[in-house]
Amino acid sequence: MLIVGIISRKGGVGKTTLAAALGVEAASRGRKALLLDLDPQGSLVEWSEAREADSPGVAPATTDTLSRLLDGAKRQGFDIVFIDTPPSIASSAKAAAAISDVIVIPVKASPNDMRTLPKTMEIVRPTGKPYLLTLTQTIAKARLTAESLALLSEVGPVAPAIGNRALYPAAMIDGRSAQEIDPGGPAALEIRALYAQILHHENQKTSKPK
Ligand SMILES: Nc1ncnc2c1ncn2[C@@H]1O[C@H](COP(=O)(O)OP(=O)(O)OP(=O)(O)O)[C@@H](O)[C@H]1O
Ligand SMILES: [Mg+2]
Fold first, then answer.
1. Which terminus of the chain, N or C, has less C-beta within 10 A?
2. Which residues have C-beta atoms less than 6 Å from ligand 1?
3. How far apart are CA 56 and CA 23, in angstroms?
């Protein structure tokens, strides 16, 4: 079972949106996918309540219940779990980072967001876990996007970027994800690309001696 933590100490960077989209992507590819909502705001749980489809599974979690929930998920045959985390509770971000096989760090292409990245890296780096930085809500051809990408690549491995697209929030209204509304569109392509990069770590995990 691959555990993917989605972590950023900055609010509003797209953690919850990505968790939903990645969970939908995994489920649509036949995986038994679970989303754990570690954010007491419960946005992901609310999203799932608005959702018609049964998959991916979604459950609320706390730092106390996280490891028990993951054990249960493994027993129930889930093979991929995405953990959505709150920006302002360091202990939650730490717990998720420590238990993840790979960490996704969404970063918005703005100077303020870039400045808070070290705060996130302070949590991620000590775990020694592999991580992927992904630029979110990017505006194509904007100079800031190119500059931010250059800065990010100095910090660590950079995964495919996620564009600033009205479809992401629009899809969340009735519990869907962008690629379910426009399966061949740019959002679908970028989510697929990010998902593929995440799965690369699953292959590395299974090829490691136990
Ligand atoms: N790629 C995108 N394009 C356009 N809007 C987006 C995109 N990703 C997220 N949003 C919107 O930005 C806002 C913040 O997104 P989201 O809630 O996913 O971020 P978050 O990191 O989970 O926030 P928080 O830290 O508060 O939990 C939401 O209104 C969401 O719909
Ligand atoms: Mg969120």
1. C
2. 11-17, 39, 43, 87, 136-137, 162, 164-165, 168-169, 172
3. 6
